[in-house]
Amino acid sequence: MQTVSLGGIINSSKLGYGAMSLTSNVYKTPEGYTDEYGVSVLKRAMELGITYIDTALLYGMGHNEVLVGRAIAGLSPQQRGKLFIGTKTGLYYEDGYKVSNKPEYLRETCMKSLQRLGTPYIDIFYMHRIDSSVPIEESMTEMKKLVEEGYIRGIGLSEASPNTVRKAHAIHPIAAVQLEWSLWARDAEAELIPTCRELGIGIVAYSPLGKGLLTGTIKKIDDISEDDWRRIEYPICENHVFDHNVKLVEKVEELAVKKGCSAANLALAWVLAQGDDVVPIPGTARLKNLEANVSALDIQLSSEEMEELSNAIPLDQVKGGRYMDGAPTFHNN
Known about the structure:
By secondary structure, the chain is of the alpha/beta class. It is built from 12 helices and 12 strands. The longest helix has 21 residues, at 239-259.
């Protein structure tokens, strides 16, 4: 599989794997799902050539990291050296979302993540959200120490504003910035992505399939379980706008038929084609979807097809923001 340099620090497979759906309860796992099956999905991802696996403290409050640890257990140092684990701290759930980038918290959670992952180092350690109560310079100084001590190889930020990225990068080079990027989540294109490219920072695109709605397989709100967090956390899935948003996907489906692939593959191919510095990390708890996602790497899009896809979903017609009011995003830092 093609590799991508993230900030000149980490070499990752062009396509990564987001492990969130294995434990987070954001997306309802398939009926009969077990941890053992989750581990098998992770192992299959590695067999398919995916070298970048993304997890976080928030996902299952550490249990997701445990599953990743089980999947990589027994790898030789040489095998582990070809694999890149990204995990995140600073965002947790306790009667609502809480954010902490205090230096002592970053260090404490780093040590606990290392234990759960069963690995001597983390390839990219992200601040999952930015703590506005702590100067980013203080947080980055502690992260820099963790690099110097060998506990982490690279530093990452998630949902950080361009201004925060610049301040952080001045303390220590940032390997990657995670941001939501898909056919209908493109606000980062205005400033954040150009900032990353100006500074030579890698881009890790989460939710490249629009939280599953760009796959064309979700046609009505009842196709999403009532206890699936998409119906609680994401405005694009609210009852009064859902039918409107799903109808926008029909154009992507039409283009997919012309291309001879699925809507999911076409939407993912669009993100993959955004540049040699971009690593999408679609997540799934199903082996068949994982293998289908990897097949999107074989789809080549012309400049005309890219433009047609970009215009398929007019951004001013997408109803609902990326997160509910009050959820921590880069807009508040």
